[in-house]
Amino acid sequence: MSDDGIALVTFNRPDKLNALNATVIAELDALISQVEQDVKVRGLILTGAGPKAFVGGADIAELVAVDRESGTAMGERGSRVFRKLEQLDMPVLAAVNGFALGGGCELAMACHVRLAAPNARFGLPEVKLGLIPGFGGTVRLPRLVGRGRALELLLTGAMIDATEAARIGLVNRVVAAESLIEESRGLLRLMLANGPLAVQLAMRAVDGGLELSVDNAFALESKFFGDACASEDKGEGTRAFLEKRSPVFHGR
Fold first, then answer.
1. What is the pLDDT of residue 152?
2. Alpha carbon of 4 to those of 42, 58, 93, 173, 201: distances in Å?
């Protein structure tokens, strides 16, 4: 972890294109729990080892023997871990440096923001194996790119490049491969320079509001706005603005 509170998490199975298996999912679960308890960690960047892949997908060899019962359990376990990542009270960025297919694409979508190198490739090719996404792909993709585009990708299993992913809103921006991690750090630093409580509340408002009716989402936002107004950070931020100085936030 760097001095700015940013932790870099690297999926390190380059010989398998950093594919997900039960061990990797369990390790990710444990890491998220550790991060939740570590007050020094304020943001995460996820990336893949090697030049070819972010996370190339699931370990197909592990899928061969999966049946209805074990498949349901696998999907529930992966979805729970990815949701746990998504609900962290800190920004999580995906620095997509290559293939993000199947479970890798689902992992990237569970991050709050996605930056991609020009060689990144995205897709949910599960239908080509007689499967469907199991770690949230059918849930997050239409929320990010819309129903029609999501169904086109899901039903064809097509792979798209970084430029197309940015065009349809699957990734936030495309940056040079050699500066991908530093660009991700820079964006994360911009977020972390703001009031920590405000950042958390904004994330909660977006995440919670997506599951509600518009009117209930407005009510949730109003509640969180009130919580922010009652914070010490709000007092410091408004005073600093009026005094023309940089604020010193403490996250309370």
1. 97
2. 8, 33, 15, 23, 21
